[in-house]
Amino acid sequence: MTEYVCPLCSYPLLSHVRSGKLYLLCRRCNQEMPYGLSKNLSRINQLEEQLNWYKLLSENTHDIILFLQPNGKITKANNAALKAYGYAGEELLALNIQHLQVPEMADFNQPINEAEREEIVFETLHLRKDGSSFPVEITTKIIEIGEEKIILNIIRDITEQKQIEQLLAQQCAKERLIGSIQERIRQSLSLPEILHSTVAELRDFMQADRVIVHRFLAEGKGFPVVEAVAPGLPSMLKFIIHYPYILEKKYLCQYQEGKILAIPDIHHAGLDVRLIQLLTFFNIKARLVIPILQKTTESEIAVSNQLWGLLILHQCSTSRQWQKSEIDLIKVIITQIAIAIQQSELNQQLQKVQEKLQQLALLDPLTLIANRSRFDEYLLSEWQRNLHKKTPISVIIWQIDFFKQYNDTYGYSAGDRCLKQIATTIRSTVNLSGALIARYNGGEFAAILPNTETESALLIVEEIRFRIKALEIPHTNSKISKFVTISYGIASTIPDRNSSPAQMISDAENALCKTKKARLSNHPKVSSHPLNLPNHFASNQPQNSKKNHHNINQKSTNIELLMGYVAYYLSRGKSVLSSLSGPLYFRGLVYEYCGYHQDFQNFWTELQQRRDFRELYVEGDIDCFGNFLDGSCTVGSCARCNLPIPISEGSVYNVPNCTLCNHQFASEKIAALPAKKEFDRQSAKTSVVTIGTPPSDTRKLKKLFAINGFEVTFLSKIEAVDDQFLPNVVDLVLIYAEISELQGKAWAEKLRCYQQLKEVPIVGLTSQAKFSLPWINKTLGIEDYILDPLGGERLANHLRQICELQSQISAPALYWFPC
Length: 819
What we know:
Blueprint: E1 14-18, E2 21-26, E3 31-34, H1 35-59, E4 64-68, E5 74-77, H2 79-85, H3 89-93, H4 109-115, E6 120-127, E7 133-145, E8 148-157, H5 159-187, H6 191-206, E9 210-216, E10 222-229, H7 243-246, H8 249-256, E11 261-263, H9 273-281, E12 286-297, E13 303-315, H10 324-362, H11 372-389, E14 393-400, H12 403-410, H13 412-429, E15 436-441, E16 444-450, H14 454-471, E17 486-493, H15 501-522, H16 543-547, H17 551-570, E18 576-578, E19 582-584, H18 598-608, E20 617-618, H19 625-629, E21 633-637, E22 644-648, H20 659-662, H21 664-667, H22 669-672, E23 686-692, H23 698-707, E24 710-715, E25 732-736, H24 741-751, E26 762-766, H25 782-786, H26 793-805, E27 815-818
Parallel strand pairs: 23-24, 23-25, 25-26, 26-27
Antiparallel strand pairs: 1-2, 2-3, 4-5, 4-8, 6-7, 7-8, 9-10, 9-13, 11-12, 12-13, 14-16, 14-17, 15-16, 18-19, 18-20, 21-22
């Protein structure tokens, strides 16, 4: 039976019947009440007790507790709610729950309908009194107190939770970004591809307007190599931008130390006005600059950082405060970029080594031309190609006459030098497309000439014989000459099914044997002397000696004279002129240690392939190339300026008539020269340092040089070079000594150690390139390189211009010229 208690004192009630009705009696209060009234009072007491429990729980929790009516009106709120929303008690109770929700997310009916069935949990945004919002998690439950339904909202502020989730998401995104870059580095060896993808992903992740990788070259100069830019903003790749060097010199040392430059607002960072103007031009308002450093090993122990470039982020829409977490992420990416750069450089070095090994496998190690294996392989492939096209092919085999006796007389070292000279001569002469020059065997060389008939092969052979004769390599034990000579054999054919490469080689070898026997029987040992000329140009030799030459030799002589004549002026900065195309500029190297440089040979080949080749002429000259080729012109010297000039064949040159030294191009020395490097000096003299045995008349030469505006410092040997003996400013270094190619490079490296000589052109003179000037029959002196109108200052400035146009990697240590 249910026990009832007194609603006044909570004492148990006794039931009794009076007048047929049930009553309850409290013995303590001595009060009597009907049975039904007691039951209702007990129920009210239970409800009040339940409400007290809810109130107690709500006031002792950190969660927000709101009691709502079904229409959303707030009826009760705990202290946590007042604190979280910033309202006073009366203010909060006057609101509806929809006033606390962000308007876009205010959907009160949906959670109420769902709460009718079960307790629901959802997330939304609530508003504080000051208008700020914060994320919340709401647990909604409908409770019944008596017959009244009350909506209970337990609200939890999840701001910290969301921040943690956001940080985790950012961390995951960072790890994905870094992982993507690392994977790309593992899969690709292409540095441009890696950099392009990296800047694009970084711009997207950082929400930056522009990301650039800027590459430094020598002396801090450089350019942007890759860029990721937001649509509508100008690209900096379309401009030649050097501002990290020009306007940020004071930051270069900091960059080299790895320091980061974070600028939230360019107008409040104390930047140079010119830099601000440049950044404003590209709509830049904030920038972040992180250096890219590469570790370089200076010795076996010391390791230093080299500034490779910069990673630059731009914010163009507004200023931006760069966060430490953002900078830390970019540091990690910079490390990956540095790895990619190192990997790319190692791969390039490996490729170069592999290419060099492949070349060496097909090259003769002494002469650096193709070896016999490459010769046989190439002959077979060209034979098949010409067989299919039905075109002729020629093979030439040369043999140095009495080469065994040469080695016995002068030693194997001299024999090696002789082989190198012969190989260089053949290689520089045979410039046909598709031709191959090879070391055939011992003192033998061979050439494969596709699309070449016997007549053309004969012209090449005769030209090579002339050039080798011009080398004047002594050979006292030769039975046919006092100088080294060569014999040759030629085989030409149109390949067919009945012939073979082996048969062609056999025919060339047989022709070589016949030539040697014929030369030995028809040429007893004779005396060969150097040309005895009135001046140092071979063109002034007696007319009788010219008549003794075969016609084909005379044609080769004319070609050689023209080639040397053009080479001389190109080496001083002049150009070849065409009436059709105008100036044909040449900015490469003309001479190397032995003969012509490949740059000039390629240029000369291009000239010969032009339709107007015969109509071309040297700038300032009035005689075209056709006059040389027809034999109507040869080369002499101007009596006034000592330059090589064209002379009509058979005429006597008496009166100075040099259009080259009278030409405006040569006379206006300062105006016509390229802009000289800006030196901090007042003197207009051209300073030249010569190294080698000084001339006997040094004092007289110095005086002569000074009158013509040159200040020459004579040093007898490389060991005499010292800071105290060098002028403060040097325009040209002239090594006036007979040195080897290797020794010359070593001297140049030593000279580059001096501050005054770091960017100065260094000229080395070599007799090995003497045949590049076929008209000269004397050793050129110091005055020939300084006093001539196109020497001295002109030569120094021209070489400086070449050095600036060529890349730092391919620029030569020194420039070779004939002596």
